[in-house]
Design a protein that fits this description.
Elements (H helix, E strand, L loop, with lengths): L1 E5 L3 H12 L3 E6 L12 E4 L4 H11 L4 E4 L6 H14 L3 E4 L11 E5 L2 H7 L6 E4 L16 E6 L11 E5 L6 H10 L4 E5 L8 H9 L2 E5 L10 E2 L2 H9 L6
Parallel strand pairs: 1-2, 1-4, 2-3, 4-5, 5-12, 6-11, 7-8, 7-10, 8-9, 10-11
Helix pairs in contact: 1-7, 2-3, 5-6
């Protein structure tokens, strides 16, 4: 069996490691947007496929038996390409998506559907912004020259970006004490995040709740209609290696 994992997430690495450990052939595809990605076991390819037709051709050429879309919950374009390519190549497809975050008592969340809407919400919420949406998409906030931004990302961002900005290069998981210190040390009064889910970056939500800060939460895009989903690497492994995949 040959499994292609569209990766870049913790769950993708865990699934690839499990499949590799079982002796299955697994190839993880990474987009190449991170300079030094954490590589999983098995084969690794870096770079795009050339759209839907390119991915479908790769699936056929490399005799892929199962395709797993384990990309970031906000990598919406590749997810729809994967759904179309899987149909063209007649390969079973599974979407591996960690559960989204759920607000609890004391949270002051302001859900929005895009980074542009997040930028629109900021003037009414705060002046010192902790922006944790990654380096892609900073152009949505570039016009806010009366706000100050603390931007956290794995790699340095490129312009356009907010003119008043400090960049913090770091990679999760993050600790609650660390997030508390970050908010207090930079006098942050509003947090902006994507609903990525998972525990690695969730301490910032707890720290914001404790500090009484508003949180602008960008909702994640939906999984393409009709694509089965798994919420953990273990669930995905059972699907891939069991009868559910339809192989």
């Amino acid at each position: 069996m040959h499994v292609l994992v569209l990766g870049g997430t913790t769950e993708a690495r865990a699934l690839a490691e499990s499949l590799h450990g079982r002796g299955e052939r697994v190839t993880t595809s990474l987009a190449g947007r991170v300079a030094a990605p954490r590589l999983p076991g098995g084969e690794v390819r870096i770079g795009g496929f050339g759209g839907t037709e390119g991915l479908a051709a790769w699936l056929r050429e490399h005799r892929v038996d199962v395709l797993v879309d384990a990309t970031h919950p906000f990598a919406g374009t590749i997810s729809f390409h994967a759904a179309h390519a899987a149909d063209l190549a007649r390969v079973p497809l599974l979407a591996l998506r960690r559960p989204g975050w759920v607000p609890v008592a004391g949270d002051d969340w302001h859900p929005v559907d895009s980074l542009a809407q997040a930028a629109e919400a900021l003037p009414a919420l705060g002046r010192r912004v902790f922006l944790t949406t990654g380096r892609m998409g900073l152009s949505s906030f570039a016009h806010l020259d009366d706000r100050w931004f603390l931007v956290r990302s794995v790699d340095p961002p490129q312009p356009p970006h907010p003119p008043r900005m400090r960049v913090l290069l770091d990679r999760g998981p993050f600790t609650l004490d660390g997030e508390r210190s970050l908010l207090a040390g930079h006098a942050v009064d509003v947090l902006v995040t994507k609903d990525s889910g998972g525990a690695a970056t969730s301490p910032k939500l707890t720290a914001a709740r404790e500090a009484g800060l508003p949180v602008v939460v960008v909702r994640r895009p939906p999984v393409p209609e009709g694509v089965p989903t798994a919420s953990t690497a273990q669930e995905a492994l059972a699907w891939v290696t069991g009868p559910a995949s339809g192989r």
